[in-house]
Amino acid sequence: MRILAAMSGGVDSAVAAARAVQAGHDVTGVHLALSRSPESDRTGARGCCTLEDARDARRAADVLGIPFYVWDLAERFEADVIDEFVEAYAAGRTPNPCVRCNERIKFAAVLDRALALGFDAVVTGHHARLDPDGTLRRSVDPAKDQSYVLGTLRPEQLAAARFPLGDTTKAQVREEAAARGLAVADKPDSHDICFVPDGDTAAWLRQRLGPRPGPIVDAGTGDTLGEHDGTYAFTVGQRRGLRLGRPAADGRPRYVLDISPVTRAVTVGPGESLDVWRLVADRAVWPFEGVVSCQAQVRAHGGVVPARAEGCGDELVVSLEAPVRGTAPGQAVVLYDGDRVLGGGHIRATA
Questions:
Q1: Alpha-carbon distances, residue 124 vs 50, 102, 161, 162 (angstroms)
Q2: Which CATH entry fits the domain spanning 2-186: 3.40.50.410, 3.40.50.620, 3.40.50.720, 3.90.550.10?
Q3: CATH class of residue range 211-269
């Protein structure tokens, strides 16, 4: 097979490419240039997609003896991931840019170009398993499982994807990289949002959206407890950094319960008010009819809760048998049967 290996510059994608070569495939490496941020030049940046990452990917390709290219997808990434991220926060939602990047960049723009160029599949270093019939499953390494950020991919996208690392723990991946002579064997994992390299999302959004002051309101009394510079600095469930003028009457901590970009009000209240029992998701991938018993996950590294799900057009209604706390519109919900991904969607409303 002709395989395009997406090489981020990290250890996972390097070993995934190496396994594709070892399996006898005709492999070409490609690094995605996604960021136009000045911080992308900085060695040791916290995210991925830096110039340092591009150099590391090229070195790995040289060790493997495969052709290597850099594809400039910065304009597409800006439009499909960054702009939507900003718009979501401005609208009071809490998006997951990694989910969006997989949907629109790695398994849309890259996959479409790869197939047009005559490649048969795209290999990535995601920690997930893919059965021959296209069923997506969790990685054998629970701590590194990435099936959640892949859980809203459509069947035709998964059909041309390959995830060679799903049967391997991260420790084993690093050992294999070292044995293969790959210099990235001990490279730290990327973290945070790749286009916010210093990790300060609120400050980054403030540069994009400017100050949008408004009140912080007590859910029980309606009293104004303080002021803020922009609703985009808050997420539902947030406790720290509220800078309220006075403590709650009962002395208990307050959490962000609601964000209204129209009135610019941030509503705070007790933790139990964050409990969510029902989710409505759109842009759903759900091949089942009727009500299906399953387990729901609403965060990349969160746990699962028993649930019942039913599709309705491109919407998905999920009733939870135990509440999840702090779930917000904009997040993804991915549904499982054990380690098998059933489908998912993007949360539009909660109750």
A1: 18, 11, 8, 7
A2: 3.40.50.620
A3: mainly beta
Q: 236-257 pLDDT, tens per residue?
A: 999 988 878 677 878 889 999 9
Could you say which of 48, 49, 101, 294 is catalytic?
A: 101
Architecture of the 274-350 domain: Beta Barrel (2.40)
Q: Which residues contact 33 (CB under 8 A, 6 or more apart)?
A: 49, 54, 70, 71, 72, 73, 74
* Options 48, 194, 294, 312, the catalytic residue: 194
**Where in the sequence of the chain do the CATH 2.30.30.280 domains occur?**
211-269
- The answer to whether residue 101 is catalytic is yes
The question of whether 194 is a catalytic residue gets the answer yes
pTM: 0.92
Q: Number of C-alpha atoms within 13 angstroms, CB side, residue 327?
A: 32
Which residues of the chain carry a pLDDT beneath 50? Answer: 38, 41-46
SS (H, E, C) 41-58: HCCCCCCCCCHHHHHHHH
